[in-house]
Design a protein that fits this description.
Layout (H helix, E strand, L loop, with lengths): L1 H16 L4 H12 L6 H14 L15 H10 L5 H8 L3 H13 L20 H10 L5 H8 L3 H13 L25 H10 L5 H8 L3 H13 L20 H10 L5 H8 L3 H14 L15 H10 L5 H8 L3 H13 L16 H10 L5 H8 L3 H13 L16
Length: 415
Amino acid sequence: MDVENNFIKPILSFYYGKGASEIEAHKEIIKQYGQHAITYKTIKKWFIEFRKEGGVKDNKPKQKKKVSDEFIIDLVYKNPGLNLVELGKLAKVSGSVISRRLKQINDGIEIVNYKNKSGYKSEKKFTDKFLVGLVDENPGKNMKELAELAGCCESTIYKRLKQINKNRSKDRKIILQKSATNTPRKPRRLTNEFITKLVNENPGVSMKKIAELANYSISTISKRLKEINSCGEIVYYYKSGPQKINRELDDESLNNLVIANSRLGATKLANFTNISVSTTRSKLKRIKGDSEEIKYAKKKAKKISDEFLISLVNENPGLNMRELATLANTSASTICNRIKKINSSGEKLVYFKKSDKKFTDEFLINLINENPALNMKELAELVNVSEQTVSHRIKRIKIDGGRLNYIKKYQHMKL
């Protein structure tokens, strides 16, 4: 601070006394003392101090203000709804001049309460009074219709009404009534009947070809098919592609196959014909629809009761899931799901998961009884499995109560 008072202040006071501005003083000092001698901010601060003190005469001729502070204050209070640009037009100055003068006034003693308002990019095409009158004269008109009458777009009507409602009380706000008649929806060119007929007439055609025939995109056809099926009406479409299909299989061959194997379901018939299950079903439906010669009834999987399954598991504790399924004439997954369902309902069905056996318990019992001198390793070599597998199977047979007299033997050490 001593440096500023003893060195900087006298130099700046000299330039201020000569009537130089802050910018001119800054340029002169830089020329004499270097680029970093003093900042413009410091010069500005000292010049403000000099003006406040009034001790040093300011010889710089002051520009006469175009508008007085009193005029601007009065202008703002009389026009509270105008923005800076509009106030500037009334005062015949620019909006930036009004903004700067308001800041200067507020820096002093008097405060001007002015709220900044966003200026319109263009002049208003019509007054608020005109818009209010237009709404009152056309109570049944919607936003679009009012915009046509006013010769502007809907967004302009919306924004102007929003501005008007801001300055109104709740009971005086302008609320447009919704249009009584909605615009009717255009009828679909692509009807459900057309798509259904197109798919049924072209059963082997891919989605891409169907889309080309209908002159629509693939996604549109796919969505419409899903939409039709979700409504209850079923359209049988099978995805075309590189499938292993025996296309030479004619209706007569399939008819003969069904007659010769009347007990077989669609899945097993598909295995015979070397085509997919879905294709077999679609062919059967088409043949059945065209002619009454084919007599095919859909075969359902054999249902098994909970009591039957519980009895089956308890009577065969050594069987695994696949072996139980073979006895019940169903799939292993069905047996698994039914066991879970029984246990979840409260009734307990004790079943231990067993892996597929490479040999039966009877085979292992006979092998041990016929070879009592063999140890675990030698038995495993005969059965072509690991020692661990033989050991586990022996333990399981003993637990289940099987007739097995096996004494553990140690391998002879080679000397």
